[in-house]
């Protein structure tokens, strides 16, 4: 495994940052698989994005940007928990970015880029 781990490229842009609300219930990413800058093994990969609040899965979105910069919208699993976006994909080795967009029940959208690496099976 490459020792080159790069941190700090994890971005979160909050569309409601300047909006005054009674409670900030917009969705903040609290856990994920893969982790930011994490590593997965090539093949069929399960992915999970967990938020601090319930989200509207029908209007949330996962865009996978591949090693060749191709973009693919991933289908969100219907059985996902109410505060998670779950998906899966068949991934070859390379550098990927998962661009997520989550709509919280307060109507605010949050977005982020999560870079990760897929390595060949040993
Ligand atoms: Cu909000």
What would you say this structure looks like, in words?
This protein is mainly β and 122 residues long. The chain has one domain: Immunoglobulin-like (Sandwich). 0% of the residues lie in helices and 48% in strands. Strands 1, 3, 5, 6, 8 and 9 form a six-stranded mixed β-sheet that branches. Strands 2-4-7 form a three-stranded antiparallel β-sheet, with no helix packed on it. Strand 8 and strand 9 form a beta hairpin. The radius of gyration is 15 Å and the shape is elongated. The N terminus is likely disordered. The structure holds copper (II) ion. Copper (II) ion binds next to loops.
Break the fold down into its secondary structure elements and pairings:
Elements (H helix, E strand, L loop, with lengths): L10 E4 L14 E5 L4 E4 L1 E9 L9 E5 L5 E3 L10 E8 L2 E10 L5 E11 L3
Parallel strand pairs: 3-9
Antiparallel strand pairs: 1-9, 2-4, 4-7, 5-6, 5-8, 8-9
The structure holds copper (II) ion.
Copper (II) ion binds next to loops.
Sum up the structure in keywords:
about 120 residues, mainly beta, Immunoglobulin-like, 6-stranded mixed sheet, 3-stranded antiparallel sheet, 9 strands, about 0% helix, disordered N terminus, binds copper (II) ion, Ig_E-set, CopC_dom, copper
Structural class: mainly beta
Please tally the helical runs, counting DSSP H or I stretches of 4 or more residues: 0
Instruction: Please tell me what the overall shape is.
Output: elongated
Our estimate of the beta-strand percent is over 45%
The level of helicity is under 10%
Enter the CATH topology name.
Immunoglobulin-like
How many discrete structural domains?
1
**N- and C-termini, Cα separation:** 10 Å
CATH C-level: Mainly Beta
The counted number of beta strands is 9
Biggest sheet statistics:
6 strands, mixed
Which ions, cofactors or small ligands are bound in this entry? copper (II) ion
Gyration radius, to the nearest Å? 15 Å
**Poorly predicted residue ranges:** 1-22
């Amino acid at each position: 495994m490459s020792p080159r781990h790069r941190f700090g490229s994890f971005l979160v842009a909050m569309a409601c940052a300047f909006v005054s609300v009674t409670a900030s219930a917009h969705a903040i990413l609290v856990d994920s698989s893969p982790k930011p800058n994490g590593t997965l093994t090539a093949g069929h990969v399960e992915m999970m994005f967990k938020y601090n609040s319930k989200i509207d899965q029908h209007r949330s979105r996962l865009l996978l940007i591949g090693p060749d910069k191709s973009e693919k919208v991933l289908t969100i699993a219907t059985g996902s928990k109410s505060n998670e976006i779950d998906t899966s994909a068949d991934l070859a080795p390379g550098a990927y970015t998962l661009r997520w967009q989550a709509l919280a029940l307060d109507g605010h959208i949050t977005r982020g880029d999560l870079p990760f690496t897929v390595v060949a099976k040993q």
